[in-house]
Predict the structure.
Amino acid sequence: MTTPLGTADSPTPDNDLVAVGCHALRGLLTSLIAFSGFLADAEEGELTGEHRQFAEIIRRTGGRMLAVIEELTLISRLESGECQLELALASIPDLVRTVVAEQQPRFQSAAVALLGEAIDGPPISCDRVRLHQLLTSLVVSRLDVASPGGAVELRARPAPMGWTIEVTGPGYPEGELDQLLTPFDQASTPALTGTPATGLGLALSRAIARRHGGTIRTDNTGGCTTIVVQLPWRRPGER
Amino acid sequence: MSRVLVIEDDADVGLALGVLLRRSGYEVDHIDDGRAGLRAVHSLRPDLLVLDIGLRGMDGWQVLERVRDISDLPILILS
């Protein structure tokens, strides 16, 4: 079954409110991470090992909260058009290789195989930093439903209309496919790998794909879910 | 020792920056107000300015403009 993800009239949050709220939270979290870090890095004898461990947990949790805030801010800016793309020609196969190499340690620690395959093709006009985020989010978000011993595959190939990028991995429950793009709507399956993502990865991927004039959809077959991103050679209106 | 001036109206963030910078070997002055910060740029002659944007009185952009009118002081913006 194939499900298109997100339509032009999908509800969007009040972007100004989100931006202001995120800015305030980011400032507070920065203090929390800094001061818990001072405690976690304290010399032996200044604090007990258990106290330093607690401080480290606060620092790590603050870091994860900050990651959520950063992704939420970016989605808001992409959807409002405030975030301008810095367009240049980029190689999709290079991006696939880069993302797979960068994420290998994370997948190895979760005992999930990460495979990459890209057919050579022409470079595409895009914002390389944002596309790197898109591929990373697509891949990392699969850790939400991957079990140890499972596999996730990132593939890319040129097509007449542009590039097609696919991520195949363990299946999301059928009834949840149309909710995948809603921020914080994580899969009902708990993260079996112990490395939960932010819950915003797919919403961020959709926002980046749309900003490039692309589309994103899911294909659920044989117990696997494939997320398919199609990026046009050029954005609408671009010369 | 290089001198860093921090203009930041959030006391906690200012304190955290001060601790981090002092641990890294810098002399640090912290001012929590844009107008007073601009005066401190003149009087303290820092080697680096760490400047918040959302300040009381005179905001960070105004401070930036005034400082740029008179010097090439390196400035890190906190946004």
